[in-house]
Amino acid sequence: MKTKPIPIGARSRRFVLELPLERPDGFGGVIRSYAPGPQLWGAIEMLAGTERVRADRPEQALTHRITLRYRDGVTGAMRLTSGLRRFAIRAAADPDGRRRDLVCLVEEVSP
């Protein structure tokens, strides 16, 4: 994934990395909730907006690229929040392997 470097000064948005908590629901499944984790500074860039049909209802999906300082252990089970906005992490990668940046491809989730 080739991206242009984003200067530290452009990372002016505060995000909270939310960590998943799973507990049994009593029927063999799990109930997932999220606990707030560390606060991170990053830059956000909108990539695309699409409309799809889910359960016979139109639904809008917005995808973004969020660039953070490198952090080990970020997975697709986690999510990022900024104010009232929530972003489900779909992929997270170190674009050049130098452990300087972490680029997350995310989808905005309705509350």
From TrEMBL:
InterPro entries: Phage_SPP1_head-tail_adaptor, SSP1_head-tail_sf
Record Gene3D superfamilies: Bacteriophage SPP1 head-tail adaptor protein
Cited NCBIfam families: gp16_SPP1
Name of the molecule in the record: Phage head closure protein
